[in-house]
Amino acid sequence: MKIWNKYTSIVRENILFSSKKNTDLKYWRDDMFANTIIYIIPLSIIALIPSVIWAFESQHYIMVFVDILSVLLALFTGVKKSIKIKKRKLLFIATVYTLSTFLIYFVGLNSTLYLLAACFLATFIYTFKNQYTPALFNVYISVFYICLYYLDLTPPHNINFDSKELFAVFSNLIFLSFLVCSLVPKLFNGLDESFKNNIQHTQKIEKQNEVLKEITRIQSHVVRTPLSRLMAITNLLKENDNTEEEKVFLIENIIVSSNELDEIIKEIVTKSESIRSTEN
Questions:
Q1: 3 state SS of 277
Q2: What confidence score (pLDDT) does residue 221 get?
Q3: CA distances from 232 to 212, 243, 247 (A)
Q4: pLDDT tens digits, 144-154
Q5: Is 218 a domain residue?
Q6: Rounded CA gap, 37 and 102, in Å?
Q7: Which of 186, 176, 93 is nearest to 131 (CA)?
Q8: What residues make up the domain containing 253?
Q9: Are residues 160 and 269 in the same domain?
Q10: Is residue 210 assigned to a domain?
């Protein structure tokens, strides 16, 4: 557990070092990318062993190189320091698409699921100028594979398929890819609005708390000064041996203290009204 916590801490620090920690959508997506890399690295290392064994037995030595390179790039993405998160994301997306393309070529149509997964991950972790960019990648790869198929440049596979099956698989892949690219941004727009509302609500509460603290300070300290003065003056007025001049002086101080207290109460009322106005 200690090793895992240390590992996750290193990856998160490396990836999120340039991200400003807050509750907006950008940080949420960066954090999700960091978590993706955290789990991808150990899982890819586990998957590497049987994949390399299969590639050697099938004499697909290029696939051996691609598998190992993909794992190394995943490690590089997670453990290399001082790389901007945008470059990390692009490197990860390029790695996933490259691996998926080679898998389709050497393994067959079943590996189109990797392309769909690549489209899904790319849409989730990165904001493209054209939201359909990941789906277009899948279109280009599909067209490229179909061309290789008709030119008889694809290696033989264990599963035989005809051209109808080929078009059916890739057409479904392209359809689902565009569907993902259409729906995920809508989801993020809703999340972004929710994040903004939460931030505004938090800021409103923080502002109200500051006003309440100020009201408490006024009630505890500022009000106490003229009130104590009034109490002291009234006690002095109870004495019967006060001269007329002393009584006038004390009454004038009562008026001054009363005016001070009135201004303080008005300030408290104003601040209280400001809290009520922010609640509406």
A1: helix
A2: 64
A3: 29, 17, 13
A4: 988 888 888 88
A5: no
A6: 21
A7: 186
A8: 223-279
A9: no
A10: no
Residues 6+ apart with CB under 8 A from 81: 14, 17
Q: Supply angle C-alpha 193, 201, 25, rounded to 5.
A: 35
Alpha carbon distance 90, 33 (integer Å):
11
Amino acid at 200: Q
The first and second tokens of residue 54, run together, are: 């299969």
- For 57-65, which contacts have Cβ atoms below 8 Å and span 24 or more sequence positions? 58/106, 60/106, 60/155, 62/102, 62/106, 63/102, 63/103, 63/106
Most confident of 20-24, 96-100, 228-232: 96-100
Number of domains into which the chain is organized: 2
120 versus 252: the higher-pLDDT residue is 120
Tell me the mean pLDDT in the region 168-188. Answer: 89
Give per-residue burial for 234-251: e unless 16+ CB within 10 Å, then b. eeeeeeeeeeeeeeeebe
Q: Are residues 38 and 137 in the same domain?
A: yes
Same domain, 128 and 70: yes
pTM for this prediction: 0.70
Both 48 and 174 in one domain: the answer is yes
49 shares a domain with 81 = yes
Shortest CA distance to 30 belongs to which of 43, 44, 14? 14
DSSP-derived secondary structure for 42-57: HHHHHHHHHHHHHHHH
Query: Among 222, 225, 230, which residue's Cα sits nearest to residue 254?
Result: 230
| More confident position, 157 or 201 | 201
